[in-house]
Design a protein that fits this description.
- This protein is α/β, with parallel strands linked by helices.
- Helix content is about 35%, strand content about 20%.
- The strands form two sheets. It has an eight-stranded mixed β-sheet with strand order 3-4-5-2-6-7-1-8, with helices on both faces.
- The relative contact order is 0.15.
């Protein structure tokens, strides 16, 4: 566990905003946004629990993340470790998605909720809460967030939000950050400098991971629109290489189209990199003739040759083609993860880290990399629906095979302040 000498000024303000001596004590909510690794998550979750125990006994609260898995990883585990250091007893009931926290005879219950899509609002409906904390609120649908807020009917309840920035038309930016004063919310913007546990070397490493809109958002902490090329870090000098003769593992990835092009790639892992060894790209409009599922399947078999392919990662909407592959029985087929913006970020990371390489024979892939752009007229982060078919099958592969389970997350551990600087809470 990382230790630091003291909280930063902003972290201390998060920790104490609700206390009797704070000028912010009458606020109904707190909003913290900004860069990754800026020290928001732990100080917010720890402050949330300390506030709950200072005001309530035997009440229910909600901890919300995009998924319960990411919430446990990014919030619950570091939070419970710190609480136990402070003398609390934490007991998680995984099957019920709840966390019971005790200090002496005093007990409160935190329910864990995932807000990954519009259907998630139903999960929290009917609950009665004394407070709610949203971790990475910008990744959650508005319907889920508003349903959770409506559940906070206990007198004295408050709302807690943290997130990394998204595009400036995002509903949370427009409805909460730009209207923070109207909502009676305390708004604090974090940068990496607000996290004392980050060394200059680690900060520099994070700064080197991103380019374009992702750099502006995750490093500078700005709510900016994506524009220009989606993968400006791609260069043929760095990312195009002749394929190895043998690889340790093989996959196929496929973006399926009827009138739109069908794109598929054969991937081989060699050391720490994945090579796109060769590709299949069929544009029905250009050829003047559509192909059937069976014809596309035969092309996949030719692409694989006699290699031991672990699985085929396929566009999840291509139900008939998925069934066709399964029916032949040669390949295991996996419907791809298809979160577009998160997938683009993962591909960007892999390109920056040199984990993706491409054979010179993959002509359509190289062509699309130079043309794949953001749609600046769209309401949010949306790629132009042009020159995106190889880009989609690459994204499917990276999101499904290379990425960690669930969505990416960032968290920071901070030590308690020294006794001299310390803030005391009575329970």
């Amino acid at each position: 566990m990382t230790e630091i000498a003291a909280f930063s000024h902003k972290q201390r303000r998060v920790m104490t905003w609700w206390t009797p001596g704070s000028p912010d004590r009458d606020r109904d909510a707190i909003i913290c946004d900004g860069a990754v690794r800026s020290g928001k998550t732990l100080c917010m979750s720890l402050s949330f629990v300390l506030w709950a125990f200072s005001r309530f006994k035997g009440e229910s609260f909600a901890l919300c993340g995009k998924t319960v898995t990411s919430l446990r990883r990014n919030v619950v585990r570091p939070l419970t470790a710190r609480l136990e250091e402070l003398g609390f007893t934490c007991r998680e009931q995984v099957s019920k998605n709840l966390l019971q926290i005790r200090r002496g005879k005093h007990c409160n219950t935190l329910y864990l909720f995932g807000g990954k899509d519009e259907s998630s609002a139903a999960l929290i409906q009917g609950a009665t809460l004394a407070g709610v904390l949203f971790d990475e609120v910008a990744l959650m649908p508005r319907s889920f967030v508003e349903q959770a807020l409506a559940r906070c009917s206990v007198a004295g309840s408050k709302f807690w939000f943290n997130c990394n920035p998204e595009h400036p038309r995002h509903w949370f930016y427009r409805e909460w950050i730009q209207k923070a004063r109207e909502k009676n919310a305390l708004y604090l913007h974090f940068t990496m400098e607000d996290n004392p546990s980050l060394s200059p070397a680690i900060r520099k490493r994070y700064e080197s991971l991103y380019e374009g809109a992702f750099y502006d958002r995750f490093v500078l902490g700005k709510w900016v629109a994506a524009s220009g090329r989606i993968y400006p870090m791609f260069s043929e000098a760095r990312h195009v290489a002749h394929p190895p003769e043998r690889c340790e593992q093989y996959y196929l990835s496929c973006d399926y189209g009827t009138l739109n092009p069908t794109s598929a790639g054969l991937w081989g892992r060699c050391g720490g990199s994945w090579h796109r060894l060769r590709e299949y790209y069929y544009d029905a409009r250009e050829k003047g003739e559509s192909r059937t599922d069976e014809e596309h399947y035969r092309a996949l078999e030719e692409l694989a040759g006699g290699l031991p392919v672990t699985a085929v990662i396929v566009d999840p909407s291509a139900a008939s083609f998925i069934e066709c592959i399964r029916r032949h029985g040669r390949f295991r087929v996996i419907p791809a993860k298809n979160d577009v913006v998160s997938g683009i970020r993962r591909v960007s990371d892999a390109l920056k880290e040199g984990r993706l390489l491409f054979s010179p024979s993959c002509k359509d892939t190289l062509r699309e990399f130079s043309l794949y752009c953001w749609d600046e007229r769209a309401a949010g982060d949306t790629p132009k629906k042009q020159n995106d078919h190889a880009m989609d099958d690459i994204r499917y592969f990276v999101s499904t095979v290379l990425a960690a389970p669930e969505d990416d997350g960032f968290f920071v551990l901070s030590a308690s302040r020294s006794q001299k600087e310390g803030t005391h809470w009575d329970f």
